[in-house]
Design goal:
The chain is an all-alpha fold and about 230 residues long. The longest helix has about 55 residues.
Amino acid sequence: MGLWNIFTSIKDRAEKFLNEKNVVTDFLGKVEEKTGIKKKVIALGAVSLTGLYLVYGYGASLLCNLIGFVYPAYYSIKAIESPCKEDDTKWLTYWVVYGVFSLGEFFSDIFLYWFPFYYAFKCLFLLWCMAPMSWNGSQIIYNKVVRPVFLRHEATVDNMVSDLSGKAMSAAENLTREVLSTLVKNKTLVTPMPPFTQAEPKSLPSSSGQTANARVAPREPSGEERISVR
């Protein structure tokens, strides 16, 4: 009975999504008009091909991360724009769990990468965390794991963050003070040089003038000099 309720909930959610007006349904509507195949069948085939690609295809990591990001991001934006705050809490919980999972995966990916069908199981895990049902994966993980650990260490983390922020502010102030004092000291040590004035060059006499001065006209002999010569 429980599995049937889960299947019915997923089916209703999928039908509701296919009847909404968005980019995916517009694309599926165009495909339905050209091929004559119903949107439900096209969506089911796309989901099946995606599952097979996650198992055997290249680049399954990128596809898996897109599945875990695009759909929640879309509904997170809708939750922000809606006046209801219940959906905000739901998707905030998902992103907290997604962040914790991504952090743990960063350190264990080198080992989990070789695990058979790892990305298929990862995709199923993310779908479980975002599934529209009462035992949603993100709600369970948050209430059972994240929240107890956070409440247990909340005061310690707050004190640590406060100390780090205070030390960072004091370090920034000290660095700024040292830089300013260094700039002022360098400014006082450097004395300005007097302006350099270039001497005006002396004009040299032209060659034509020198030649004219060098030439001396011959002097004519006087009358007495002419008599003595005779």
